[in-house]
């Protein structure tokens, strides 16, 4: 069984990554772990997911969760920062891409979102 780690929070970037997971990645024999900085919902979720609570620096926590759960793929969104802004503000997706020893799928913003 394949394990996909989906890094989520309440941002629209994560919603875009979740939608891409549902449309492009999910398969019948795929297990999905949602890596979240907040507690999982107390009610059952319509789709079956396991929740992984992480804390600390987001990039480091996602990389650690991917290793602990032996993820076959990490899926996450990106804010679409330019090179200069990414240098000063930092980029979680850039950190994960360069530090995870797992394949990483980064869902970029649409052209419209990037210009807003």
UniProtKB/TrEMBL annotation:
Residues 49-108 form the UspA domain. Pfam families: Usp. InterPro entries: Rossmann-like_a/b/a_fold, Universal_stress_UspA, USP_A, UspA. This is Usp domain-containing protein. It comes from Macrostomum lignano. The lineage of its organism: Eukaryota, Metazoa, Spiralia, Lophotrochozoa, Platyhelminthes.
């Amino acid at each position: 069984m394949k394990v996909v780690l989906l890094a989520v929070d309440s941002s629209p970037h994560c919603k875009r990554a979740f939608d891409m997971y549902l449309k492009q990645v999910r398969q019948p024999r795929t297990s999905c772990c949602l890596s979240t900085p907040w507690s999982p919902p107390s009610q059952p979720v319509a789709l079956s997911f396991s929740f992984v609570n992480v804390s600390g620096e987001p990039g480091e926590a996602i990389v650690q969760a991917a290793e602990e759960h032996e993820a076959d793929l990490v899926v996450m969104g990106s804010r679409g920062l330019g090179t200069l802004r990414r240098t000063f503000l930092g980029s979680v997706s850039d950190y994960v891409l360069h530090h995870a020893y797992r394949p990483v799928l980064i869902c970029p913003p649409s052209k419209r979102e990037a210009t807003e």
